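ARCHIVE CARD
Drawer: 12
Card no.: 0347
Subject: one protein chain, sequence and derived structure
Cross-reference: see card 0346
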Amino acid sequence: MKTSEGYQLINPGDLFWRPSNLMKIPNADYLERTGSEKMGARLWRLPPRSANTLHRHIRAEEFYFVLEGTGRMRVGEATLTVPRYGGVWVRPELLRQVFNDTDEEVLWLIFGAPEELEFLQGSKSKMDLSLIYPTDPTQLPKELSGATWPPAEPASGGR
């Protein structure tokens, strides 16, 4: 690590993959170890027939970039198809949701800036989540009509 020298190399093996809170989409935060307060960057692996949250931001602009597969996304009233290596920039106030209505996994790299520190783990602020989620964040786009997402939580076996 060379954060004290103004840079930090992040190897793929350094990433910690976890399911997102609401939609259970596997993601890895590239910048969590750097302490960056200026931008965020995450990989998101969207399984077939899945969706991330329908949300917007307060200050953060985001750039969505497809690394593998064909990306699908709704932004405001528009539904977009994003080819591999294609990208979409979105203003903070617009509702957006990446989804996957195919039978193949899609890998997105999503950058946002400035980082909205209220949402970092350990934040002491009490955020009004209706600013980010003005409607049900778990609603699926019409393209996933009939799909069930997120997956049900496994029942604990009491062991």
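Annotation on reverse: The two ends are 40 Å apart (CA to CA). Strands lie at 17-19, 26-29, 40-46, 50-51, 61-68, 71-75, 78-82, 87-90, 96-100, 106-113.
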